[in-house]
Amino acid sequence: MSIQKAFLFLLAVAIALGALVADAPEATAQPATAQPAAGQPVQLHVVPSDGPRGGVTVNPTIDPDRNLHGDRVESHGKGMALLFWVFAAASIGGALFVVTRRNLIAAVMGMVGSFLGIAAVYMMLYAHFLAVVQMLVYAGAIMVLFVFVIMILNRPEDEPVAPTGHVGQVVGGIAILYLLFRLGMLLAHVHVPASAQLAPPPMQLPGGEVADWGTVKAVGSDLFSGGLFPFEAISILLLISVVGAIAIAKPLKDDDGEDADLGEDLATAASGAPHTDGGHA
Amino acid sequence: MSFEAGDLGWLVPYLILAVVGMVLVLAEAFFKGRDHTSLAGLAVAGCVASGVASIVLVRQLAGSEQHMLLGSMLVADRTSYVLSALFAFTTAACALISPAHQKEHGWKIGEYYGVLLLSASGCVMLAHAANMVTVFLGIETMSIGVYVMTAMRRRSRRGNEAAMKYFLIGAFATGFLMYGMALIYGASGTLSLVEMPAAIARTHNPGLVIAGGFLLVVAFGFKVAAVPFHMWAPDAYEGAPTPVTGFMAAAVKSAAIAAMIRVFGTALGGDITPFGALGWASPLVVIAAITITIGNITAVRQDNVKRMLAYSSISHAGVLLVGVCAMGLGSSSAQASLVYYLIAYSVATMGVFAVVSYVGSRGRERLLVDDWGGLASQHPGAALAMTICLLSFGGMPPTGGFFAKFYLFKSAMDVYSGQLLWVVVIGVVNSAISIYYYLRIVTAMYFRDSTQPMAPTRSAGLLFVMAACPLLVLELGLMPGFWLKLIGG
Amino acid sequence: MGDLVFDIGYGHFLVLAAVLFVIGMAGVLIRRNALIILMSVELMLNAANMTLLAFSRMWGDLSAHTFALIVIAVAAAEAAVGLAIVVAVFRGRRNVDVDRLTALRH
After folding, report:
1. Contact indicator for B82, B487 with CB cutoff of 8 Å
2. What residue spans define the domains of chain B?
3. Thinking of the domain C2-105, which architecture would CATH place it in?
4. Which of B46, B198, B266, B353 counts the highest number of beta carbons within 10 A?
5. Partner residue facing C18 (CB), from A91, A96, A184
6. What is the tens place of the pLDDT at every residue in C76-96?
């Protein structure tokens, strides 16, 4: 159990360190309001992005100096870089923990660490609301569900990897690394529109209000205008999963009109062996 | 701007299925431990109402008229309504078969009917999908419902195991689907499938479109059970209760193809990607060719009827993928031919699985080909129904399957400079091979003596499906013009 | 090199997501325990969500946030059903090893 404790401890230290460093560049970035930080490409004059859909539109008339949160620059500066690397390491380390641990509880803990790191990365992408949802729903609810099931099964140890030959493992590993390399090269050189280098401007909501990008207000406004149908339709999906999960996992009773094990062997059925049809009164 | 009450009028088929499904979930609470025939009746009534609404609405639309609904999340056109009518029919047939099967095989779970209709509502959502959000949500609604239904024979080890395999593979495919959609969104900047072609045409990141297209090919390959991604299908088909297998083979596969029509045919089709710069069409054509061949060759070796039908449905998926490629490459008749093929295939599938659940009874499924010996002498009607549906699968002339294959391959030949000619040749050769194993069942039924007495499952609903499906198959083959006019081809 | 480390751009977020996706995919392929496979799938969905949010930020288009929210809800529903199936399988055979599911033969 010491490994995951150490891991959690490291994660906590990392978060604390990150929080400390985060203060510093923000203070220095504050006076240089409209100025992008050093190392920024020069083609920054195009500010408004080209028209997102729906009722939520970027209003080019909004004063660019208007500053709700004080974060003028996108994730530039050494503090942000350090934060990014810390949380990236947390999420990747947690993910590796999941796929390598024999102990299921350890895997779940790695998963929680990974999800917290991912939530922090969402914050850097200005997805504040999604970051909170990620923590509440994923790291909170779903992982607790996993822990419950692991406790029900009560068999934490498990053989770790599929027993394929060494050749298979090597070939598979090379294939996966190659895939990662190609995907990584593609994504690292993605063409970014110039307007996307700045912090996202505040948005004009239908009611005339202004909200910061990615906040509950802005996301909610989109959710209840363009995203209304999926938002409603997902309730059907949740109903299926609730009803279905109960129907599948409720305890077996002898008097619920179900027969005993009917998974009879086909071979015996074929050879004309007398079959048992339990429970047909 | 996005919610118009008038839009709901166009969505009546979907709403009926969803609402009746919810009512069924509630009603189940009052039918504990009793006969579920009345629940099945309500489910069938809902499906019929939904199907009738679809047919009424399809007559309101001119040939290529399209209505964008609810913030352009959904689209209403003739294809979507014809497909929703088809899904309603399939679901109704499934609900008609189910009560007798539940009684004979001991899995009386009342929640089944509610989940069935809600899952069908996911299929209908896919038929209407015009946005990646609705594509994703429709696929998930449908799939999660089917995972649940597969696991509903709770005391059967094989049922649970089938559900587990199906679920894990399906969830894996969902991961690919989401990542592919995210990459395509990155290239285009829009989630709407209708705005996608224009957005992709001016993208600066063509690499993302290609990578995303590949991932989507993998994801949909899993969903329709195309060959490198098919290993779950025979197990899931065999382990699931027979009516659910029918639903899986007919409705789920058709709905996945409906989503592919929207995603690959409309959004990523035209002259943007398909073969240019190694777009999605070249892997998909190869997958289609492999799928048709491997599906057929493996089916020849099966002794279990359900597994044989599973491999047969895999090879049908390959033929459908040829149609999707043809549509992406700009064949104008491909969409109508795909829809026609889906109709012929789904109807025959429901007929076949109705007969399969008729033959098995009292906890024994009688799935081996040997068990079917002498069926014709004892139950000539069932044998005739099975024969007609199997001939339709094989593409024999008087049935719908013949015309469907002919029309689909013809539309594939329309593609610019005969690029798909080689796949068409493979498809035709494989149709001939497939006749062999379909005839194995037919010869067993007609020319072999029965080894043991048969006591088939009898119920009015089951007999109705067994009578209606072969008649429809024949009608589809004899009068294709009416259906093509309905589809708008 | 300094740019790569200190100048965090979209490429960093996207490659991070790709790494998570590939780790999740490898987890599904190499692990045999159904619960771990399910967790790996959740990792893949998270990677997709991160990609979606990075591109959403890039295009200045909030509709992808709605999509990401829906994906999270779907993942929760899927986890619930998946865990129910795991419990049902475990009830019958006392382990959830994918390799030992052999009642259905090829």
Report:
1. yes
2. 7-487
3. Orthogonal Bundle (1.10)
4. B353
5. A184
6. 999 999 999 999 988 877 667
| Beta-carbon contacts of residue B432 (< 8 Å; ≥ 6 apart) | none
Kindly list the domain boundaries of chain C, sorted by start residue.
Answer: 2-105
- How far, in Å, CA of A202 to CA of A141, rounded? 32
Q: What element of type H or E holds B366? A: none
Q: Does B297 touch chain C (CB under 8 A)?
A: no
Residue A169 lies in a domain: no
Q: Rounded to two decimals, what is the model's pTM?
A: 0.88
ipTM attached to this prediction: 0.94
The residue with tokens 């994906």 is C71
How many angstroms from the chain centroid is the CA of residue A224? 22
DSSP-H helix ranges across B106-156: 111-128, 132-150
Domain contains A139: yes
d(CA A233, CA B73): 11
* CA B461 – CA C42 distance, rounded (Å): 41
Q: Please report residues of C whose CB lies closer than 8 A to that of A142.
A: 42, 75-76, 79
Dist CA B320 CA B100 (whole Å): 32
Residues of A in contact with B31 (CB under 8 A): none
Q: What is the CATH number of the domain that holds A150?
A: 1.20.120.1200
Residue A198, φ and ψ in degrees, nearest 5: -85, 165
Whole-angstrom Cα distance, residue B168 to residue C34?
A: 8
In a mutational test of the B interface, the residue from C38, C104, C105, C106 whose CB has the highest number of chain B CBs within 10 Å is C104
Residue B135 clears pLDDT 80, i.e. is over it = yes
In the structure encoding, which two tokens stand for residue A116, read together?
A: 């917290």
**Structural domain boundaries, residue A80:** 2-159+186-271
In angstroms, what CA-CA distances link B448 with B307, B390, C31? 21, 18, 47
Cα of B43 vs its chain's centroid, Å = 19
- Within 8 A of B151 by CB-CB distance, chain A residues are 244, 248
